[in-house]
């Protein structure tokens, strides 16, 4: 059984922004239920803190960063990611007048002074850490007393329906037995891990539903997902899926969990 690709091979996944852009594009095009994540994030912290010093850790291509810049207009907004390619995209998303800067850094060692940040946002990134509690300890170090963190993750069984589809189509016979991409930090353990270093103030769970309209749409997403061992190209995958998916498509679900936590 292969190792979890979210815990290794980061250069392959995020050395360029193309793969992530194709994956998120296919997923967003399939979404039929669930509020936009940046919108929910922006409603959780104390408004006064959100207008001060904000750090978006694991900012990726900057969609959440751009939303927070517009919604909160903080005094200082920093986007941090380990991928240079994703940071280039993130910079392009923000208007030139935005008070924002972008830093390339590992979230285990943030280039931030102790007790210097009012709000930390970390959406869909902590499951890239073998020990996410170490990252949360770093958040606690950087937060001012009473400072807040918004942590966002998914359920461990997210998109299970696609695992079953890939297995049934014979594309990856081990798909349903592969480890969850979110195994280290998911909806079921997020509160427990967070409370080691921060006080959990609020937890919100939203169900997201995705409908891939046909075999080609599903194949577009599957070819960008690192979980599976897919030897075929996108056209061959589409052909293999068509007898199972037909013109009715396939529906998949994911629970998205938001935790608002505070430095004690």
From TrEMBL:
Residues 55-150 form the Methyltransferase type domain. One of its GO terms (biological process) is methylation. Keywords: Methyltransferase, Transferase. InterPro entries: Methyltransf_11, SAM-dependent_MTases_sf. Signal peptide: none annotated. It comes from the Bacteria. Gene3D superfamilies: Vaccinia Virus protein VP39 (3.40.50.150). This is Class I SAM-dependent methyltransferase. The keyword Chaperone does not apply. One of its GO terms (molecular function) is S-adenosylmethionine-dependent methyltransferase activity.
